Amino acid sequence: MIQASELILNPDGSVYHLNLRPEHIAHDIIFVGDQNRVEKITQFFDSIEYSTQKREFKTQTGIYKGKRISVISTGIGPDNIDIVLNELDALVNIDLQTRLPKKELTSLNIIRIGTSGSLQKNIPVDSFVMSKIGLGLDNMLRSYLIDEVSEDAIEDAFIMHTNWDIRKGRPYAIACSEKLEKIIESDKIFKGITATAGGFYGPQGRVLRLNIQDEDLNNKMDNFDFNDNRITNLEMETAAIYGLSALLGHNALSLNAIIANRASGTFSEDPYKAVDELIAYTLNKLAYH
């Protein structure tokens, strides 16, 4: 039995951080980072049956073209993903009354919709990027046993290419769900490797008043190539989502609307339009599968 200190429940029986009970979530879930983006997605729903928020975790569940979908804001960073994925899994795969794992496990379909800047000149602003691989630079997932789901060859190649300081922890590489990739992909979507950092400033190469461990890391990442897969963008959630989903038996895919291109120095003239188009595209793909 899972102890009360390990799986914390609120007085109403909901999981501690997300404030959700099993009946509140759909099996098709969209992740966003910003709580204000939840309603930018659910505004397209035919109806909303449930809404709640605790801290940065906002959830709305409703119906879009006959498909029941939940939209959840995760906040920023791999540490928040650790909370969200474990509590979502508990909702479907642990009996909250007996505190025992269920014999028959449920696989959720999780799609992250975000915005990002491209690292490659051939990926223009206003385009969509699908993360074929999540490359974690944050070290969070190393708290788990990940050898069965991680891609050692990519990790080794990245470590060698960047002369990675192993004192920061070994990077981890996790593939997206092939099932969701086939549902969402199109000729208009670029694919590549998404790097996930554990912070916004130093971990992503930004220098304010503090020197960073490797000031050339971003340039090395721009030039990294593994079997024609290049690092398309840098953010703070994808690899953690992929890793925990793979370990827990869920399907995960990360999509980004590209609103800036660092290589060409360009920025979208209408970034909100790009995000809305990605939202509409994703919802329609989910609705008919």
TrEMBL record:
Domain Nucleoside phosphorylase: 29-266
CDD domains tied to this protein: UP_TbUP-like (cd00436)
PANTHER family: FI09636P-RELATED, URIDINE PHOSPHORYLASE
Chemical reaction(s) catalysed: uridine + phosphate = alpha-D-ribose 1-phosphate + uracil
Pfam family, one: PNP_UDP_1
Protein name: Uridine phosphorylase
Species this chain originates from: Flavobacterium calami
EC code(s) of this entry: 2.4.2.3
Class of this enzyme: transferase
